Amino acid sequence: MNRIEQIVLMAAYNRWMNRKVYAAAAQLTEAQLRMDREAFFGSILGTLNHLALGDTVWLKRFAQHPTGFSALAPLEAIAMPRDLKHFAFADLEQLATRRGWLDQLIIDWVETLREPDLDQRLHYRNMRGVASDKPFSSLLLHFFNHQTHHRGQVTTLLTQAGVDVGDTDLLALID
Length: 175
Prior knowledge:
Blueprint: H1 3-25, H2 30-34, H3 44-62, H4 92-110, H5 115-118, E1 121-125, E2 131-135, H6 136-160
Helix pairs in contact: 1-4, 1-6, 3-4, 3-6
């Protein structure tokens, strides 16, 4: 499996897991989703909001790649989030709609990646405005790892709330 195939697999895993997490979250009431569970982002809804905002930030940065990925052009209509802790989406339904859109965008985009794209460096500014210059392939690893990390937190919070997400292993998607 080459690097592009690995990235495509991670994008598929991202969508698969998000669908499972959102289906599980839909079993809870709005109050249960908003309840402060003493997690880093407070609640299940807060953590899911963070993931959508974080993905938006990274995808908008990736759109500035020297290759100029046209598949990420739809992000131009979306403002860059200024804070990764606020509730950009008031309820699970709004958030699920954005999540589904983001996941499809990610799938469509990674299918356009080519090996030479991965060897480029990406110049961007972090949330505090500090300039960075990092290998694009490593930033993609961070992007997918960040998603997995926070979904792991959400699955723990859902389990504590009495909802089983089911199998979460990447292994389930590997032939």
